[in-house]
User: Which sequence fits this backbone?
């Protein structure tokens, strides 16, 4: 009788035995291909601009982030000061963005490339983790490839504000990696990294609260920690490197049912029988962390006003939308078209859609449970998908979206697992199974890559993003609203108003759209219409500090300083750290000629927002009015440091240099202002006056002529008085 080592053969259609050839350079080659493929698909994000949808809040209008990475900013990242901005406590996300600012400043390319770097690392880690757990190669490579290039993941990578998504997933992957190591030989030392990585992940994005549940799924498959595993059982034990003697087999059978069987069957895993209760018990610290994070997140979202009340969206509507969203995500996974940055919540659900979605979910779940013993990967993959979406599926409605592509970043891994192991099982009896699998894999990856590359292009700037969203969705009021803000940024206020009007037709009680339209009217000098819109915004939301501040600015423009002061004081009362309101009130005091009081308010604005270019500029102008030119130059220089394209700051600093009789520097500043803004008549007039001081009359006349051509009546009068024509 042959009693030497015997291989356990794998049942047809199951995972192949672990082979030494998988320890060769093939995994390295696969990792290299994954990196190259991911970079090719996403490389164009380096040219993507900042978006006015959350990127402003997270980066380019965030004074805390723009303070860079330092001791004070680290403290701020962990404090509650930034919670209100994002409705989440995620200090690691803030720290990563602060670090980016320290390196890249306000160059969006750097932020995007860091997002891409995290996505690449997540892809590689996913491949390595699955390979370690399953001891297979090609299914793991397929899952990682789908994760890398699936179009639904474009939003998480191409959107700077979603740094929290790719960063938290990085810690998710590290947690899984540490857990696979712990599962081989449980112990406190091996458990500690699991706990730490999970905690760090929650500090990047609280959506990771479902991770302990996922670890339980992995305990079932592919780690097989739920119970004793028999050598001849038709599970995926054949994925292990199983070279076992007959004597070893007998020893295993002998130990089955004992409290802690310790017989080794592989070089990698110990043979251990375990019920679910010890597995649950070992994860209690992780569940505690998850619960704590959930409570903090809910409180933060409640405080920020992000959570919709049951009066706005009833529980029935929320549950119905959840069922439909689950199926919609599956549909978009298979056929990823008509993807948008925002999917408006319908506000009501169609009964047959809800019932159809529920029925389909039940059928899939029944099939998964029915195939539990024969296809355990189905349970892990399916319940991974269902479970990880729970925090963002809309039962607790945060925001106005029905669903979001970014929410699927981690959940889709579950569906990819189902496909990677399920499709080979379905095709196990076909003659050309390997060839068909290879062709289907290559074709699907190629198609998804092309679609993803095209989807990345839609994220190029505000207009490409919202134009596409409006083309593929209906009643997308947010896309109209945000595109209107983008038009305002470009000075196209009439087009902006058109978009705001469309948004209001769709959603007539959205206070921010009225506020935005009011700002557009104000920029056009239509202050009465602006005030009407600010009134509407305040009528919808009585504690809307921005609307009060903006209405105050409109009243100031009309010369109604008393009403302006009342409104701005109200804004400060509602939001005591509102730097913009302090700056606005300083402007009112300056209009009243009270420069000392104005400076006090500018000081408050800068105290709350240390990199507030406009506040430094306004304080500099106040110092100019007081004849304190040295302090004026210092403040205006700070404003220019923060905003190098600030022509008004150059002009006013030139005025201060002129006051100090430093005419050379004054001319340089006026010239800088003209270079930034070639039609800046005030700069030409002031430079002309300085040229007169230095007796360069030819240049003085030349600047006067340019100012006259641009329509300045003062310049024309001066030239007429000297008998000089400016029309030549």
Assistant:
């Amino acid at each position: 009788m042959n009693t030497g080592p015997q291989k356990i053969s794998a049942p047809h259609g199951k995972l192949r035995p672990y082979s030494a050839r998988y320890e060769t350079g093939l995994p390295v080659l696969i990792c290299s291909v994954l990196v190259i493929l991911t970079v090719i698909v996403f490389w164009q994000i380096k040219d993507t601009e900042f978006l006015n949808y959350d990127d402003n809040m997270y980066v380019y209008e965030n004074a805390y982030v723009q303070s860079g990475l330092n001791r004070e900013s680290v403290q701020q990242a962990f404090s509650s000061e930034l919670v209100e901005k994002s409705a989440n406590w995620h200090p690691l996300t803030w720290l990563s963005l602060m670090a980016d600012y320290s390196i890249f400043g306000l160059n969006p390319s750097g932020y995007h490339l860091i997002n891409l770097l995290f996505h690449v690392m997540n892809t590689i880690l996913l491949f390595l983790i699955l390979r370690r757990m399953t001891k297979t190669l090609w299914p793991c490579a397929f899952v990682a490839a789908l994760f890398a290039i699936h179009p639904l993941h474009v939003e998480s990578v191409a959107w700077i504000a979603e740094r929290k998504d790719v960063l938290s997933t990085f810690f998710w992957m590290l947690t899984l990696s540490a857990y696979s190591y712990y599962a081989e030989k449980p112990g406190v030392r091996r458990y500690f990294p699991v706990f730490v990585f999970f905690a760090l992940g929650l500090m990047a994005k609280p959506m990771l609260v479902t991770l302990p549940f996922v670890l339980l799924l992995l305990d079932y498959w592919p780690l097989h920690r739920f119970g004793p595993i028999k050598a001849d059982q038709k599970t995926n034990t054949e994925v292990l490197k199983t070279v076992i003697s007959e004597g070893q087999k007998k020893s295993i059978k002998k130990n089955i049912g004992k409290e802690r069987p310790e017989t080794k069957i592989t070089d990698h895993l110990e043979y251990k029988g375990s019920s679910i209760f010890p597995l649950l018990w070992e994860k209690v610290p992780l569940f505690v962390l998850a619960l704590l994070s959930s409570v903090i997140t809910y409180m933060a979202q409640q405080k920020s006003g992000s959570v919709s009340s049951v009066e706005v969206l009833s529980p029935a509507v929320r549950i119905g939308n959840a069922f439909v969203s689950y199926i919609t995500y599956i549909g978009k996974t298979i056929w990823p078209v008509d993807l948008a940055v925002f999917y408006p919540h319908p506000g009501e659900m169609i009964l047959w859609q809800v019932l159809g979605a529920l029925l389909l979910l039940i059928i899939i779940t029944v099939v998964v449970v029915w195939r539990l013993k024969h296809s355990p990967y189905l349970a892990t993959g399916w319940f991974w998908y269902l479970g990880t979406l729970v925090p963002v599926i809309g039962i607790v409605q945060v925001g106005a979206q029905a669903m979001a592509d970014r929410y699927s970043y981690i959940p889709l891994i579950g569906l990819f697992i189902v496909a990677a192991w399920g499709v080979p099982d379905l095709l196990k009896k076909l003659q050309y199974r390997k060839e068909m699998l290879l062709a289907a894999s290559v074709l699907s990856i190629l198609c998804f890559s092309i679609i993803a590359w095209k989807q990345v292009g839609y994220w190029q700037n505000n207009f490409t993003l919202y134009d596409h969203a409006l083309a593929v969705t209906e009643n997308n009021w947010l896309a109209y609203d945000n595109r209107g803000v983008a038009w305002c940024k470009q000075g196209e206020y009439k087009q902006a108003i058109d978009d705001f009007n469309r948004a209001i037709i769709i959603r007539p009680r959205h206070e921010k759209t009225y506020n935005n339209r009011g700002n557009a009217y104000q920029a056009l000098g239509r202050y009465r219409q602006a005030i009407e819109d600010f009134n509407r915004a305040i009528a919808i939301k009585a504690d809307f500090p921005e609307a009060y501040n903006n209405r105050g600015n409109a009243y100031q423009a009309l010369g109604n300083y008393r009403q302006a002061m009342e409104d701005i004081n109200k804004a400060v009362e509602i939001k005591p750290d509102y730097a913009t309101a302090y700056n606005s009130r300083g402007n009112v005091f300056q209009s009243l000629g009270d420069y000392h009081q104005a400076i006090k308010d500018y000081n408050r604005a800068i105290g709350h927002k240390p990199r507030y270019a406009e506040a430094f500029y306004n304080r500099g102008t106040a110092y100019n009015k007081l004849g304190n030119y040295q302090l004026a130059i210092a403040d205006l220089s700070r404003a220019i440091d923060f905003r190098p394209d600030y022509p008004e700051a150059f002009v006013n600093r030139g005025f201060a240099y002129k006051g100090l009789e430093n005419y050379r520097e004054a001319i340089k500043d006026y010239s800088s202002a003209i270079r930034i803004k070639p039609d800046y008549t005030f700069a030409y007039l002031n430079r002309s006056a300085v040229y007169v001081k230095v007796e360069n009359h030819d240049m003085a006349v030349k600047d006067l002529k340019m100012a006259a051509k641009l329509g300045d009546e003062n310049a024309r009068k001066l030239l007429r008085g000297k008998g000089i024509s400016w029309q030549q």
